[in-house]
Design a protein that fits this description.
Blueprint lengths: L7 E5 L4 H12 L3 E6 L2 H12 L5 E5 L5 H15 L4 E4 L14 H29 L3 E6 L12 H21 L4 E6 L30 H5 L8 H14 L3 E2 L5 H14 L4
């Protein structure tokens, strides 16, 4: 999808971080923007900013873990603009700690947002993109932790591995319809994901249930801390070139290569 001008982009988790940085970048391409976020105050501020860049912008408060709310997001998008062309399923949360310490509510919260949120975006938008027959592109935010196991991020890894698998399969399924698919797999970026417990529902433990990352876990983080603007630039380039995998950190390559080398060596046993 090389010509973005005048087309419609929908971005979940759009009020901060990667989502907002990508909205700014797409506004520069002349796209009309739909921002979705669970935080109304942050969403209002983001909509005002993107409108200030001279593009038509719609904000829809959305909890991506609720299918009906994502369907409402799609309804409002098509009611306002009559189409959607780029859908960026980007909203995400994280929780830290070893798997054996995780409670059921931890699993439910992270999978609900990080995996089901993407599934809901696919359910709500993909049939409409096929029906409108205008091509388009789906971008799903996974993580380096969706390609390589990260100690202390087991629940997050499970969700993000699912997003990678979903994206790979979806890419094949949508190719005959002229709809591209990309999966974003960054290492650490300067975003609010480490504060994601601020939006954790009370019925799933509330904001006090998520513990902060320990010093040891912080020390185990791999790669540089880069800006969300860098990720946004790579997202736009991948959409234009219809690239499946989006990497932000060159240093991820060695870890990914070693993982697949271990898998390959297992055939020799």
């Amino acid at each position: 999808m090389q010509d973005l001008s005048g087309r419609v982009a929908v971005i979940t988790g759009g009020a901060s971080g990667i989502g907002l940085a990508t909205a700014r970048r797409l506004a520069g391409e002349g796209m009309r923007i739909v921002l979705a976020d669970v935080q109304q105050d942050a969403l209002d501020k983001a909509v005002q900013e993107i409108q200030g860049l001279g593009v038509e912008t719609l904000g829809v408060q959305t909890d991506v873990g609720e299918l009906k709310q994502v369907q409402t997001l799609a309804d409002k998008t098509f009611a306002r603009f009559g189409a959607a062309h780029l859908v960026f399923n980007n909203a995400g949360v994280a929780i830290f700690g070893p798997i054996q310490e995780m409670k059921h509510e931890d699993w439910e919260w992270v999978l609900r947002v990080d995996l089901w949120g993407v599934i809901h975006g696919v359910e709500a938008f993909v049939p409409r993109l096929i029906a409108q027959n205008q091509g388009g592109h789906i971008v799903n935010t996974a993580s380096f932790a969706g390609l390589v196991p990260n100690q202390g991020l087991g629940v997050y890894c499970v969700a993000k591995y699912g997003v990678v698998g979903l994206s790979e399969c979806l890419s094949r399924d949508l190719r005959p319809h002229g709809i591209g698919v990309s999966v974003l797999c960054p290492m650490v970026l300067q975003t609010n994901i480490e504060k994601s417990e601020r939006n954790r529902p009370a019925e799933l433990g509330g904001s006090q249930a998520s513990r902060p990352r320990t010093q040891e876990e912080q020390a185990n983080l791999r790669g540089r801390v880069l800006t969300p603007e860098l990720a946004a630039e790579k997202v736009v380039n991948a959409v234009k070139k219809s690239e499946l995998y989006i990497h932000t950190h060159e240093e991820a390559r060695a870890y990914i290569r070693r993982r697949f080398e271990r898998i390959d060596r297992a055939f020799e046993g």
